[in-house]
């Protein structure tokens, strides 16, 4: 807490003394040195570097950015010239979208009536405002991102434009995406469930503003740190490509998010991504300075993404822990639908629980099936030779197409149980197909991840879309 006050006071001091302030204008917090903290223990301490961008001595600013990126891979910028009001509007329109009272209204904003186009346009005035705000924020944040890349390039002994041009394709090629993370409260066991699992960002640079609910944590020096909320800062996180391009000099910070028991957390994240075919490799060699051997092989950004997803999958398959579990008894069907869409997009497999099919029926199904296979060989053969095609033999739906001739009639309840199960399964698949179809109709992807642990129905929903192509702005 003392450190926090210190930071605040220091920031004010820097501001009031303006340009004459020559002392280092990064506000380094204290490092909790000497305290050993377990990996899963969180230290709440304002130690994440804050860089004041208003200092006219840009060399100093550059040094602060470089130092923070080397030591932490994350920092906060203040006095970044993006108007406070713009950030407030950004948050307002995003929150409005997620909190539209009626689901029908949300649907209407997401999908224009009479349009089959997934990307369809909406003439709704709220949508116009949202687009304007998002575009203006995109323009501003793009300038900030390019400035940061400029300083990071200089820190590598390269031209100011090097990272942006060589790593992100420059100008029209660099892809900016905005994502809004939405973490509903997790009542039973918020402390046991994470919003986002620990990860490093797959894309290059992340520029993030959260709402006032804390949740972001970064890993440094063997401990987790809370990233404190401050409405004036933009959080900057270094992702994998910059880590590789800098030959490991800049850290790709490991981070995660926690959930709040009472309140919804949201974060607005602008991601700067290289084009998929861009080769990501240590850039230093281009300067002819061969001091340091490259630590990373060249790899396209697309390959990097694929590898990371593959790694994640193989890890998950080993534990099966991450396969989404969807609770169909949740009264909010919209949430259920989004969970199904997200699970299908990301996994292609999910578990459903509380799905209305009585467990007794499933038990009986297994019993009669097992009995069937225990019939004498001759009886099974007789049934099989009756069936011309395997398909017809096993058909259980629709009832009009079921040929009972191929069903065993000497197993009690075989027919009733199978018919009942077929009816239930048909209902369930129709429901799931319905939700999947709704998923195609959404202009924005509105997704919900689910967690198996305690909170049946949690972590986050997000929508994302590419910013419209923006002209490259001059670095200043
Ligand atoms: O919500 C946050 O604060 C972090 C989000 C994040 O790490 C991500 O979107 O990659
Ligand atoms: Fe992240």
UniProtKB/TrEMBL annotation:
Keywords: Iron, Metal-binding, Oxidoreductase
UniProt key word Metal-binding: yes
InterPro entries, A to Z: DIOX_N, IPNS-like_FE2OG_OXY, IPNS-like_sf, Iron_ascorbate_oxido_reductase, Oxoglu/Fe-dep_dioxygenase_dom
Fe2OG dioxygenase domain segment(s): 173-274
Family membership: Belongs to the iron/ascorbate-dependent oxidoreductase family.
PANTHER family from the UniProt entry: 2-OXOGLUTARATE (2OG) AND FE(II)-DEPENDENT OXYGENASE SUPERFAMILY PROTEIN-RELATED (PTHR47990)
Protein known as: Fe2OG dioxygenase domain-containing protein
Source organism per UniProt: Brassica napus (Rape)
